[in-house]
Amino acid sequence: MSESVIYDIGYQRYDGQRLGRRSAVVSLYLHGLRGVFGLGRPARSKVLPWLVVAIMFVPVIVLIAVMSRTGTQVERYDFYPIQLQAPLAIFLAAQAPELLSRDQRYQVLPLYFSRPIRRSDYALAKLAAMVTAMFALIAGPLFVYWLGSIATISHHPGDARHQTAQFALGLANGVFHAILLGALGVVIAAFARRRAFATAAVIGVYLITSAVAGALSGLPNNNGRFGQLFSPFTLLDGLRVWLLHGKVIDENAVPSAAYGIVSVAFVVVFVLVLLRRYRTIAT
Amino acid sequence: MITDQRGAAARYRQAVPVIETVGLTKRYGPITALDSLTVAIEPGIVGLVGANGAGKSTLIKVLLGLLDPSAGGATVLGHDIVTAGEQVRSMVGYMPEHDCLPPDVSATELVGHLGRVAGLPRAAARERTAEVLRHVGLYEERYRPIGGYSTGMKQRVKLAQALVHDPQLLLLDEPTNGLDPAGRDEMLALVQRTGTEFGMAVVVASHLLGELERICEHLVVVDAGKLRASDSIASYTRTQQLLAVEVDGGAPARDALAARLTESNIHADVDGRALVLALPPDDEAAMYDAVRDTVADLGLALLRLEQRRHRLSDMFSEPRADHGRQSEQGQAAGV
To answer: Are residues B151 and B285 both part of a single domain?
Structure first.
């Protein structure tokens, strides 16, 4: 009897520390964040996220090169996510399902929900992971751009201060993008068991809302301008202009505050729908 | 160390029931999956047996808080499943019946992650992941993506993730699902070892009575969401030693023997061409003698006289036979 036990070092009882729910949620968040970038996954899961990361950095490198030649800044920080919306949208459409649809498709949820976390913890940790990933995707290149600007065109302390202030505005804009787009992608992916459906749905929302906003803008007397509030591109651009520069794009445009109100409303609705989805999801 | 574990195990085994349900009911629309089930499950390895759809998985999911009960209540390890679900879940390990493993991560990555979600610190999660994967018999392959694993390996990973946080109670739902005979034997041995050597309370749900017979100390039988029986394996088998007798001469000879035995106050049931009678545990020899003498008196040729391997399914089929559903049950709880 004792012989088999002596050689069996496989299983031991555990008497050590047990951390609470908070630690569990943090680990869920970190695992999600790693997963979004394909870390801890096979090489093929890393291709798309890191391709997008590379694409996000290319314009920054070019802009820094131009600055070092010409000595003038050609682009403002807060413009960045607008110009790189396509890679951001692709990243969101591809990786939000990686975060949520996958656990539904392979029926992993019972393994999580049979552990001492709440369903809302799971949903919010995944949302936070997606938002963080989107923010990192925007903030990383901006940080390099800021370093480049300091190195190439800041000759006086005032220049550096100006650059830093602009960088801060760029980060704030990145936060808006990350929250709104992250919540949009996550709430769509939460309803799709299949990755491909979730990806198509996210892209579909982008394309359809843009098309509708574009079509409405052609209405006479500018009556269709409110369509801008319902496309992620135009909504975020309006929000950027209002919050960071405090001005209206033109006289006939949507009242600026509407961008803020609609953005907040969208995020609140997305989060509530997400929480409800996971409260009622069958396991 | 070892004696400490055993001591703790022994102490634990004297403790209160690990699971206690009172009038537990779960309805899905018009379907009642659990029908006011009241049962107390003691520590040890306990089998939860019933046909597919009898309510085994539903019971486990309700206990874990994966499903809300429609009525009644339950405690697991002394905690209420509704008001203290998080405490319950921190002390329980669950192995689902269905596939539940993402294919694109390694066993190490998944089990370590789930250990952390169960509350283990990072270093402890890593250490215990290595230990439990070794315990379930996964070695080099644990660094490869799970998608490439065989069914047997996947079942082992499912067991490992249920063990990683060292639960006090293991709830295993059909742990031998999809395994070949050798794989079944290995999985059952693993479950038995986990339960006996480490004093962990284990509840194994299965529709395969034969498997539960081998590893369980206690059986809980559910049928259509209701409790049918709950008793130790020993008490089932004590009443279930059977003797099968077959004589030459077909049904007339068989019935003649049955009639003569009945005269001697020995009750015999007809089972095909054979007669089956109960062996009294205290005096088996006398029964053998009585049968031999009766056959000889009738001048019949004895073809077969064998002690039946006790089959719990025979026992469970009896109440069903009253409803004239014996054959159906034989398949449902079949071995």
So the answer is: no
